[in-house]
Amino acid sequence: MNNASKIEFHDLHTTRDEFLSDVINGLRQRPASIPPKYFYDAKGSKLFDAITELAEYYPTRSEIALLKQHADEIAGEVGTGSLLVEPGGGSCAKVHILLKGLKPCAYVPMDISKDHLQMAAQELAAQFPWLEIHAACTDFTREMKMPPSAPQGTKVAFFPGSSIGNFDPAGAVAFLQSIATLVGPGGYLLIGVDLKKDKKILEAAYDDAAGVTAQFNLNLLARINRELGGNFDLAQWQHLALYNEALGRIEMHLRSRCQQTVKIGSESFDFAQDETIHSENSYKYSVEEFNALATQAGFVSQQVWVDDKQLFSIHLFRVKP
Ligand code: TRP
Q1: Could you read off the pLDDT of 230-268 as tens digits, one per residue?
Q2: Quick check: 318 and 299 in contact, CB under 8 A?
């Protein structure tokens, strides 16, 4: 059997119609917004991978170092033979650190970006020939279901990258609840959470000198042009990243450099100069704040790991057996 034949692929991705109606609804609101899940087309997913390698973007490095340092402890807590699920695991980039110790019975990456997921799953299969992979192309913000072919085992959800910070706190609790339901009694959640810290460090991480994060943000508009027939003039939009200290979140916006009208198909949208489209939030949590959220969702804290510089945290939670 070759490696590729061990990958089961399930395609449940969102349609163009949904993309169109989400964009139109979002741009009709004031302040205007676009759901951040649409960042991740093939181009956006590549740009995102580039963000994770930027000097200013400390979360990826900090999290990988923590995972490496504590992989044995994690495996010691969770045990082997589990069913490892990764919502949003499109690039399968961090899971390899856990695989040797955890020896899961199967790995289920779920991601909205189909090609990205397929390629990453194939690479991982080549690296770990013993690993059974059931890749599911799905929008995990809408539904979180195991592919029917996945084997049984204690479920361990892996949600790295502080992606939980991209929900607002109420949405984060709801999402954590859906993970608790997915893993069931006795199931685990291993989750990476970015910590509150100095505003300068935070803002630099989301507005790098090379402008990669700006490209990533602007790609949202380029994607609307490509896929929905929009006519955004990218030169008239500016990337903004600001830390909102009161709400404990980085806000990403696209700022209109002038008064302008943008068309998407037959719809048109007016923007004043300096008006913004809110494209994403990234909430930051202290260890205590995050424990409180996860507790509300039905999890019990097992362990927390924080790096020496107190930049990033990894929590292990469990649903009561
Ligand atoms: N969830 C991570 C964060 O908030 C990664 C991420 C999501 C991100 N969207 C982003 C990073 C946009 C930079 C820009 O940090």
Answers
A1: 999 999 999 999 999 999 999 999 999 999 999 999 999
A2: yes
Residues with CB under 6 Å of ligand 1 are 51, 59, 161-163, 165-166, 206, 213, 216, 280, 282
Mutating to test ligand 1, I would choose from 166, 168, 191 the residue with most ligand atoms within 8 A of its C-beta, which is 166
Tokens of 320: 């009561």
CA atoms lying within 13 Å on the CB side of residue 313: 22
Rounded to the nearest angstrom, the distance between the alpha carbon of 54 and the centre of ligand 1 is 12
DSSP-derived letter for residue 87 is: E
The residue whose CB lies within 8 Å of the most ligand 1 atoms, and thus the one to mutate among 47, 48, 56, 312, is: 48
Centre of ligand 1 to C-alpha 66, Å, is 18
* Residue whose tokens read 């068309």: 263
Residue 17 CA to residue 120 CA, distance in Å, equals: 27
Please tell me what DSSP assigns to residue 3. G
- DSSP for 30-87? SSEE--GGGG-SHHHHHHHHHHTTSSS-HHHHHHHHHHHHHHHHHHHHH-SS-EEEEE
Higher pLDDT, 9 or 225: 225
| Cα separation, 269 vs 262, whole angstroms | 5
